[in-house]
Amino acid sequence: MQSIHATVKELIVALLTFCLFLPAGIAQNEVDALRFSNTQVPGTARSLGMGGAFGALGADGSAYWINPGGLGAYRRSSVEMTLNVNDFHALAAYEGNEAADGRTNLTIQSFSLNSTRAIDNSRWKSYTLGFGYGKSNNFHQQIRIDGEAANTTLLDVFAAQANGTSSAELMDKYPFGAGLAWESFVIDPLNEDDLTYVPAASGGAVRQSQSIEREGSMSETSFGFGANYADWLYIGGTLSFHGINFSEVSRYQEDFRETDDLKSYQYRQDLRASGAGIGMKLGAIACPTAWLRLGAAWHSGVRYGISDTYSAEISSQFLDGGSEGFGSPVNVFEYVVQAPRRIHGSVAFVLGDGGVVSADYERTNYGAIRMESTESDYSFNAENQAIGMLYRTAHRVRAGAELRLAEAWRARFGAQYMQSPFVLGANSNSAQIGLSAGGGFRRDALFADLAAMFSRRREDYYMYNPQLVNPASIAMSQLAVMLSLGLRF
Question: What is residue 16's three-state secondary structure?
């Protein structure tokens, strides 16, 4: 068994290494595919307080994104809005050193408007038409890595990429990597006649640091329909329009202690991505007894059309006080990410007038993600192969409870576990665990809810070729505080 695990690890490292040497100008890879496929439930403060376990309950804005069968559970028309304060913190350990960073942002998490109408003289009691908008991903993050390594440098990667190519052709062939390194004088030819290159500084202690700043979000705008059959079956569906707005600025720097020429350099990469997709959801909730509710939902895959702009630059500083800098052209590339479908199951136990206990399960096969090009002959075969090797079927479990403290007051608590989408040896232990608590006030026409969730996960991050550098272990924590206000009419 150990030999099998070792083989898998070697294959994964090989795939990761191979992706570092993709043809110049292709910045899109399996990392982007997972980023835009691994979405969260937009939710409301009420659903967040119960750990997101709302699939068997309904009559809440979260029904648009968990189980649209819950739209049929509405008794009255309503409008609801949720605000979210999200605080992200990252602590990165690299080569015996720790660096902390983070950021906080405020956003409109969700909004829903529902129109419910009764049906007379029919076992179909009512129907609901509605509209919901929610944030399915929050990309606002800031991460800093800093440490001192020995006998390893990103310049080895640039030199290896340049080998076999004449200096006059480097910028044309590798405008985002080795070409920039050559023009900025951070790699040198081994000799005048040989097409072999070496770092302008190598060996000894190297101070390596990287800052990563991310912004943007993913949104989901849904138009839904739900119906109530005899107060024991609720069915519904949504048609959803998805949006992507993402940016990342990465600044990687090396400072050389033992050198007679190159003092330091910085490699900056800028990525902007925008896109749109369409999907649908179907769901149902059954109430076989007064105390039991069962829910099931199917989420179609979403086919995203994405447009990226990518650029890079290298600036270098030398011991004699000189400096150089060179920037790449701006690469614009359009491609498709086919995100996988999801299956949901849920159960809730009604505790009379005392409250409710519920649990949700979700299954997603991230290995089924696919990438396609829309404007070139590039096949994405390498990326799709990496996706199949790196990602797996992941499971999510959410559980929570709502207790009725008085006629108008509620208390809630919950937890969720989200399994890592990575296979063995590639952040397979980077599961996310979250704990939540909240409360609410509900009158005949007005309601307000407040909830907070604290979640943590850990992942390894390689600043470049995993065969040359040790990973940085990054502990990430997130505190989300949501406030929902609503009106029934």
Answer: helix
What is the 8-class DSSP label of residue 344?
A: E
Q: What is the pTM of this model?
A: 0.88
The residue among 308, 297, 347, 281 whose CA lies nearest residue 134 is 281
Above 50 in pLDDT, residue 26? no
Token digits of residue 337: 């990410």
Report the distance separating Cα 123 and Cα 85, nearest Å: 43
* 310, 331 Cβ separation under 8 angstroms: yes
216 residue type, one letter: G
Q: Could you tell me which of 115, 61, 76, 58 has the C-alpha nearest to residue 297?
A: 58
d(CA 149, CA 204): 8
Q: Which residues pair with 23 in a beta bridge?
A: none
CA 286-289-294 angle, to 5 degrees, is: 30
Q: How far apart are CA 128 and CA 125, in angstroms?
A: 11
Task: Give 259's DSSP letter.
Answer: -
Please report, for residues 34, 65, 271, 290, the alpha-carbon distance to residue 337 in angstroms, rounded to integers and kept in the order given: 9, 20, 17, 43
Max distance between CA atoms of the chain, in angstroms, equals 92
The whole-angstrom separation of Cα 116 and Cα 225 is 10
pLDDT digits (tens, 9 = 90+) for 413-465: 999 999 999 986 656 567 899 999 999 999 989 999 999 999 999 999 999 99
81 Cβ contact partners less than 8 Å away, ≥ 6 residues apart: 108, 110, 111, 484, 485, 486
| Phi, psi for residue 379 in degrees, rounded to 5 | -95, -20
Delineate the domains of the chain, giving CATH numbers in brackets.
2-147+208-488 (2.40.160.60), 154-200 (no CATH)
Looking at every residue in the chain, the average pLDDT score rounds to 91
The number of residues making up the chain comes to 489
Q: Are 126 and 119 in contact (CB under 8 A)?
A: yes
What is the spatial distance between Cα 14 and Cα 367, in angstroms, rounded to a whole number? Answer: 18
DSSP secondary structure, 182-245, as one string = HHTTSEEESSSSS--EEESS-SSEEEEEEEEEEEEEEEEEEEEEEEEETTTEEEEEEEEEEEEE
Is residue 286 within 8 A of residue 250, CB to CB? The reply is: no
pLDDT exceeds 80 at position 13: no
The pLDDT value recorded for residue 375 is: 76
**Alpha-helical segments (H) within 397-446:** none
Say which residue the tokens 């329909």 belong to.
Answer: 225
- What's the CA gap between 132 and 110, in Å, rounded? 7
Quick one: average pLDDT of 192-217? 90
For 71, residues 6+ apart whose C-beta sits below 8 A from its C-beta are 58, 63, 64, 114, 128, 130, 224, 225, 226, 234, 236, 238
Q: Rounded CA gap, 404 and 332, in Å?
A: 55
The pLDDT of residue 427? 64
Q: Give the mean pLDDT of 219-232.
A: 97
Q: Which residues pair with 93 in a beta bridge?
A: 98, 473
